[in-house]
């Protein structure tokens, strides 16, 4: 072994020695004579590096994210609450118009409430609800993506533990898990971004900008150091292995949006598309990046991590709830969802009592309010 290593060690010493000789000054400077390097504000010679580009990139990325968040929110602000109020208004009017439908209406309210609550965490949701929601919380198709792997996870679980672990697995793909990731992201992402910048050998100015970039736009933490432990844990079939792993922490303005649900088509009363709004949302599972090899048929599969921030997570959650309550169409991943141009709560009204007909006169119109006050002594 020593004889095998010796030539490489000798070559290494020679290279290092040559580097030291090349780095040595031709003339030794006088002792106690200090010289200052020429400073310049250009990107090539400044000791701080490029002074403007890193901050410009941070601002432009944050501006793009804020634009997407704003458009996604203004399509129907707090759409889950709006749709719930619109539905409740309709139910109240239905009961007033036909009291015999009270039991049926109460049953429908319970059904919608159960669908909305189960869609938030997916822990107690039926498979149809899970299939509908994950199109809004993760990417994927029949040939790849997070949703494909998400559907295969139960097959890797021990049969005796599958039922107890299924709710936890479902939660990882739920919009509420995105809310959790969004809550911790702005606190963790700046440190991750700064660590990545230092590791990549960036300039001092780029390192400073990376902190703000992480806080606003998120950062991705490389977890390849965990691969030996993961591959050696025996969780995967012998032919499969994890080749890469990372996790994306969202910043304050991270939108997520790398989901299989297509952009929203906003339509007018005639069904004509007025504008298109990019999807917003994600999940904890969608925040994980994976590289897998040895997969049957596909062989290699790469899952890109997608960062979700607190604002994007709440907008996505509201849209999931609204969709479960009837807002929009096409949220099954098979086509572009369509939502009306008018938000569901914009024409919200409350039930009114019918007028009582008494020989052609109305109690409401014939009532003498001033005479009533006089009778009370006012």
How much is the average pLDDT?
77
**Total number of distinct structural domains:** 1
Enumerate the spans where pLDDT stays under 50 for 5 or more consecutive residues.
Answer: 1-44, 360-367
* Tally of DSSP helical segments: 13
The main sheet orders its strands as 1-2-5-6
Topology:
Elements: H1 2-23, H2 53-74, H3 79-97, H4 102-121, H5 127-133, H6 146-156, H7 162-172, H8 175-199, H9 204-217, E1 219-222, H10 227-231, E2 241-249, E3 264-267, E4 273-277, E5 288-295, E6 299-303, H11 310-324, E7 338-340, E8 357-358, E9 361-362, H12 363-366, H13 369-375
Parallel strand pairs: 3-7
Antiparallel strand pairs: 1-2, 2-5, 3-4, 5-6, 8-9
Helix pairs in contact: 2-9, 3-4, 3-11, 4-11, 6-7, 8-9, 8-11
Tell me what the structure shows:
- The strands form 3 sheets. A 4-stranded antiparallel sheet has the order 1-2-5-6. A 3-stranded mixed sheet has the order 4-3-7.
- The chain has one domain.
- The protein contains 13 helices and 9 strands.
- The radius of gyration is 31 Å and the shape is globular.
- The chain is an alpha+beta fold and 378 residues long.
- Residues 1-44 and 360-367 have low confidence and may be disordered.
Question: What distinguishing features does this structure have?
Answer:
single chain, 378 residues, alpha+beta, disordered N terminus
What is this entry, summarized?
The protein has 378 residues and is of the alpha+beta class. The chain has 13 helices and nine strands.
